[in-house]
Design a protein that fits this description.
Layout (H helix, E strand, L loop, with lengths): L1 H17 L8 E2 L6 E4 L1 H20 L2 H25 L3 E4 L5 E2 L3 E9 L4 E7 L6 E5 L5 E8 L4 E3 L4 E5 L6 E7 L5 E4 L6 H5 L13 E3 L2 E7 L11 H5 L5 E7 L5 E4 L8 H17 L4 E5 L2 E6 L2 H12 L9
Parallel strand pairs: 4-12, 16-17
Antiparallel strand pairs: 1-3, 2-11, 3-5, 5-8, 6-7, 6-10, 9-12, 10-11, 13-15, 14-15, 17-18
């Protein structure tokens, strides 16, 4: 009970002293940033020492005094090693990759220490810690996860770096806040419109063919840079010029993913369905555009188009859709 009160009171006191400031990367943990207190095991160990001391005094036990002071010295050395295990560690921020609602956002940090530092834990408030052993020279990257419960920017605030090494009698910790954020896309929700196809194609824009390499179309004069494999050798012997074969393949329809497709569906469901349509169109390599109230993405395909559309869906303001 007392340890819980202390653990709740101390962060409040720390916030009052240091304030919720943003740290510049990298951060080096030094004596001004590291806090240390006994754990429950440490408090029990201190109580045991007190009982041993009282018993030794009461019964005048010389060996009791030796054992008591020996254990007290061991506890003091453990406290110094716990502090040292955190001191000097350098932590740098790494950009967080976007994720979807319902998944866990991964905030990566690079951590490096002068010497071996085992059993280092990192976590956000009320989350399970991620453990790392710094046993080799050089920096290591560790991902601190946090559940993504809603779309938009996820800003988790500060995280805690701590250690109980070596005996678990003391807990040393420090707070770090780089002000990093993670973009959370809407949860993909499958839509029947992509299966129906025609509902997602606007203005009847369908090209029957494009120049490609699937079906033979006709012959044309050879141009510098044409592949030798496409040269029509037999036809060229009967002509005064070299001829090159042309090929065509069916062109995919341009898809317009429109906010208005879903009628009276609530806004969040619309965004989730549009997210799934973007992922499906990108997976099938179909050129697609996105129409939202007061926002339009020109048709294209590729990673840049996917990220641009998903970001627009993630940051969409519901108020923009209200008449």
């Amino acid at each position: 009970m007392h340890s819980k009160v202390i653990s709740n009171l101390f962060p409040m006191l720390t916030n009052w002293i240091r304030g919720q400031r943003i740290d510049s990367s990298p951060v080096i943990l030094n004596r001004r940033r590291i806090y240390i207190l006994p754990t429950r095991r440490g408090l029990f160990f201190a109580l045991l020492l007190l009982l041993l001391l009282l018993g030794s005094i009461n019964y005048a036990l010389s060996l009791g005094f030796v054992l008591t002071f020996l254990l007290a010295g061991l506890g003091h050395v453990a406290m110094l090693h716990t502090y040292r295990n955190l001191s000097g560690i350098q932590i740098s921020a790494v950009a967080a990759a976007p994720t979807f609602v319902g998944e866990r956002a991964q905030f990566q940090v690079s951590i490096e220490a002068p010497g071996q530092r085992p059993a280092i834990g990192l976590h956000f408030k009320n989350q399970s810690p991620e453990w790392i052993d710094l046993l080799e020279p050089g920096s290591q990257t560790v991902a601190i996860s946090l559940p993504a419960t809603q779309r938009g920017w996820l800003m988790p605030g500060r995280f805690t770096v701590f250690t109980n090494f070596p005996l678990g009698l003391f807990r040393a910790w420090s707070y770090v806040d780089f002000g990093t954020r993670c973009l959370v896309y809407p949860r993909p929700l499958p839509s029947t419109l992509m299966a129906q196809g025609e509902h997602a194609i606007q203005n009847g824009q369908r090209n029957t063919s494009l120049e490609g390499a699937d079906d033979f179309s006709n012959l044309r004069e050879y141009r510098v840079g044409d592949s030798p494999r496409h040269v029509a050798w037999k036809a060229s012997t009967k002509s005064d010029a070299w001829l090159t074969k042309q090929f065509i393949h069916p062109a995919a329809a341009t898809l317009w993913l429109d906010w208005q497709f879903f009628g009276d569906t609530d806004p969040e469901t619309r965004l989730s369905r549009l997210t799934d349509m973007v992922l499906t169109a990108e997976r099938t390599q179909q050129s697609y555009g996105l129409r939202l109230p007061h926002c339009e993405m020109a048709p294209s395909v590729g990673t840049a188009q996917r990220e641009c559309c998903l970001k627009a869906l993630a940051l969409f303001e519901i108020s923009d859709a209200e008449p």
